[in-house]
Amino acid sequence: MVKSRETPLEYGNFYHIYNRRINGTPLFYTSKNYSHFLNLYNKYIEPIADTYAWCLMGNHFHLLVRIKELEEIDVKLLSNPVRVQNPDRVEKIINPPHIYFSHLFNSYSQAINKQQKRSGALFERPFHRIKINSDRYFQKLAVYIHQNPVHHGFTDDFRDYPWSSYSSIISKKSSKVKREKVLEWFDGKENFIDVHRKIVDRNMVQGLVAEI
Hints:
By secondary structure, the chain is an alpha+beta fold.
């Protein structure tokens, strides 16, 4: 299997994307940091990817996304598209998907460096990405992502944790998370909640990755 840091991001495919801060030190210090990361995520990633599950924790994060097909991407919504000049017009060309994740991480790093009066890299490089093509992995990974704050001691009950997509998926409030598709994977909201009561450990997720 291709190492997770070397896996290319291809249009139309699902990925488990995750990363942490260098040396495992804090990535988020305040609630404003979490909110700022999400705002930057909406700016850079929302135009090029659909999001199905996410969780931000003190020193790392997990995402379950689908990179949109090229024809699905609205160039007008992109930040920093490549500009190519020709004699007749200025043409915008879409960057490779990983570039927009780099924009996200670089922008957030600049904000934290300014806040903490530091310099240098914030995230490990390159970020981890695992291509998903197993139906079993979709469901197990979504549960694992939502339960992750419990595994790492950030909360005793993942249902109360504010920085994940769990509450958005079971809510009726407007959300950019692809709620309907996620609930379809779980055969409905009740089963989504029920399956989340079972603990999914890291070894199980890694075992499913090995099947891909």
